[in-house]
Write a structure and sequence with these properties.
Residues 1-39, 74-93, 358-389, 401-476, 549-634 are annotated as: Disordered. Residues 454-463, 551-562 have a biased composition (Basic and acidic residues). It comes from Dunaliella tertiolecta. The chain is mostly helical. It is 77% helix and 1% strand. Residues 1-38, 341-352, 371-380, 412-454, 456-492, 585-603 and 631-635 have low confidence and may be disordered.
């Protein structure tokens, strides 16, 4: 097993030990002897772990690409002329404002529309009442072409004349008799129809007037309905556009969410790669931090404590390297890949191969430099090599550490780096001579020899001093007064002025457009208000006229009811008189049938009596029809129909008797 090399360099503790154990000759010569001395201080240096930087760089590139893509997307959406989310949201707000305006206009026209619709509905209902009344009156003559009682009497007279002529057969005569009976049954309906002629004419006239009024109102209503449908169509169109905008915004939100998710995933991958790198570099960084702490402790005069910590660190790592095969293999492999020799990072040319190459180059360049130099000029002094400087520095620092350790043991104050010892220049020279190592290297160009060489090395040694620029960084430099007093006016660029001018012009145009739109809306609202006022006045006038017409109709109805009551009383009295007259006539006819030997005389008297009764009945019916009310209630209609039915029965009986008398006279003449 290759034992890891340990460093006893106080200043350059970050030197890396060789993997194969080969070290420069200047340090391996006394290495075994120095390990046993009290001044030796050894550390185990950890090689930098092998980490693939390409993984971290690829993660950083991916994260940067996602961030750039998201930034470009946001900038495109935030641009004024772009088609991003901001432009789409502005379009959606404009559409919503237009939809609200269209809805407002539609809502303003709703009361007028509803008023027209309700008025048309009322008029249609009122006209339907007249139509129903006309249908009820016309139902009396349904199924017949007769329209008056006179026409009925004329047709019955014609049928009776056919029977009286005797030119038809018995079967046809029976059919004629049935037709006469059917026509007699229609007499009551024809009387009602005759009595309702005035009411029918009034109902037809009112229905026609209402039809004309409805035609005008429906034409106006159709215009309002067309405007309302157009407004509704505009609202629907705008609402569809708003839905499309909302859908596009949702798609943009989804796209932005995907970009944000990709950015977060890339950031998580980058953080994971950084954590993996930090985990792999943890031991290496801890080792470097420990080396720096040891160096600071030695510089602060705590060499013994540093030595104890360093020894514990060496024991710990030797145990790890001897027990863990994989760790030992990685340790050896990494050091073999990184550095073949132990070389200070501060002195990168301190390896043996670098020294040999530098010496060969110096020998090859020596003749040419001498040839190029001036004649009689002295040769330049030889400069120490990098290895010699490193060795001299190491020996100087070791001597300094020994001096401080000896002073600490004797109780004297140990000199620090950069501090002059007490006792003047002679004591300082003596201390330097005592601290000079036995095998110290003296540069050949030194003029004063050993003591001067030690002084030169001491001067070259690093000192712990403060940064001279720190105080300058803390000072506040006041700003010259001319920069405070003279304030120049800011002159914007030409493109910025043009942009501001175009934006201001666009704002003015937009304000003018909005003002024009508001003026148009105000004019439309005023026109709508005027139309509404006119319609309200017309509706009020029509309402007053309708109330007056209703009042007049109510008065007429009351008058008709009063006259109907009087006519009903007179009709009832006339019906009683007719019934008594019919009974007397039937008694006389029976007596004549029993005792009248003269058939023609009795039949003539019977005809005269029937004609008189018929004329009297027609006169009574005409009087009742003239006095009959134009409008009847359900109860009065039932009573009247019952009376008509009774009258019809009485008339039928009388006609049957007359018919029998006629037949009797015809058969026995």
């Amino acid at each position: 097993m290759a034992v890891p090399e340990m460093s006893n360099d106080i200043e350059s503790l970050d030197q890396q030990p060789a993997a194969n154990g080969a070290v420069p000759s200047t340090t391996t010569k006394d290495s075994n002897a120095s390990r046993g001395t009290s001044s030796a201080l050894w550390l185990v240096r950890i090689p930098k772990p092998a980490y693939d930087e390409g993984v971290l760089q690829s993660r950083q590139a991916e994260f940067k690409a996602t961030v750039d893509r998201l930034r470009e997307y946001n900038e495109k959406g935030a641009s004024k002329g772009g088609k991003g989310k901001n432009a789409k949201r502005a379009e959606q707000r404009d559409l919503r404002a237009r939809m609200n305006e269209a809805r407002r206009l539609k809502d303003e026209s709703d009361p007028e529309f509803q008023m027209k619709a309700n008025r048309i509905k009322e008029l249609k209902k009122y006209r339907q009442g007249f139509v129903d009344q006309i249908k009820e009156i016309m139902s009396h003559v349904q199924g017949t072409d007769l329209r008056s009682e006179a026409a009925l009497d004329e047709r019955i007279r014609q049928m009776e004349s056919q029977i009286a002529s005797g030119g038809i057969s018995l079967r046809e005569e029976k059919m004629v008799v049935q037709n006469v009976s059917r026509l007699q049954a229609l007499r009551g309906k024809l009387r009602e129809f005759d009595s309702s002629q005035e009411q029918l004419q009034y109902a037809e006239g009112e229905a026609q007037k209402l039809k004309t009024v409805l035609a005008g109102m429906e034409s106006e209503f159709s215009i309002l309905k067309a405007e309302r449908d157009a407004a509704y169509g505009v609202v629907q169109d705008i609402q569809k556009k708003i839905q499309d905008c909302s859908k596009e915004l949702e798609e943009m939100d989804e796209e932005e969410k995907e970009m944000t998710k990709a950015k977060n995933d890339a950031y998580e991958a980058l953080q994971k790669a950084r954590e993996e790198k930090d985990a792999s570099m943890r031991d290496y960084r801890e080792n470097r931090r420990f080396a720096l702490e040891i160096r600071d402790m030695v510089a602060a005069g705590q060499a013994e404590q540093a030595k104890v910590l360093a020894a514990a660190q060496v024991e710990e790592w030797l145990g790890k390297l001897t027990s863990d095969t994989h760790l030992r293999t990685d340790y050896t492999k990494l050091w073999s890949e990184q550095r073949k020799y132990m070389v200070s990072e501060l002195l990168p040319s301190s390896s043996l191969s670098a020294q040999q190459e530098a010496a060969a180059k110096a020998k090859a360049a020596a003749p040419s430099k001498q040839a190029k130099g001036k004649k009689g000029e002295a040769a330049a002094p030889a400069r120490p090599s990098t290895a010699e400087q490193a060795q001299s520095l190491i020996e100087t620092l070791m001597a300094q550490a020994k001096t401080e350790a000896a002073a600490a043991e004797s109780g004297a104050k140990a000199p620090r780096f950069g501090d002059a010892p007490e006792g003047g220049e002679e004591d300082q020279a003596a201390a330097q001579e005592a601290a000079k190592p036995s095998g110290a290297y003296v540069p050949p160009h030194s003029k004063e020899g050993g003591a001067a060489g030690a002084d030169k090395k001491k001067e070259d040694a690093p000192r712990f001093v403060e940064n001279p620029n720190a105080a300058a960084m803390k000072n506040k430099v006041p700003l010259p007064r001319q920069y405070l007093e003279q304030e120049e006016a800011f002159v914007p660029p030409v493109d910025l002025l043009a942009k501001n001018e175009s934006e201001s012009q666009a704002a003015v145009d937009e304000a003018q457009r909005r003002a024009q739109l508001r003026e148009e809306q105000r004019i439309k609202a005023a026109e709508a208000e005027e139309r509404k006022r006119r319609r309200a006045e017309a509706a009020e006038k029509k309402k007053v006229a309708a109330a007056a017409a209703a009042k007049r109709l109510e008065q007429e109805r009351q008058e008709r009811d009063a006259s109907a009551m009087a006519a009903a009383a007179a009709a009832s009295r006339q019906d009683a008189t007719d019934e008594s007259a019919g009974e007397g006539m039937s008694g006389r006819e029976e007596g004549s049938q029993q005792v009248a030997p003269a058939k023609q005389q009795s039949s003539g008297s019977a005809k005269r009596a029937a004609a008189a009764a018929k004329r009297k009945e027609q006169q009574a019916l005409a009087n009742a029809a003239a006095k009959r009310p134009k409008a009847r209630g359900p109860l009065r209609t039932v009573k009247k129909r019952l009376q008509d039915y009774q009258i019809g029965i009485a008339v039928g009986i009388a006609l049957a008797l007359v018919f029998l008398l006629v037949v009797y006279a015809y058969l026995y003449r």
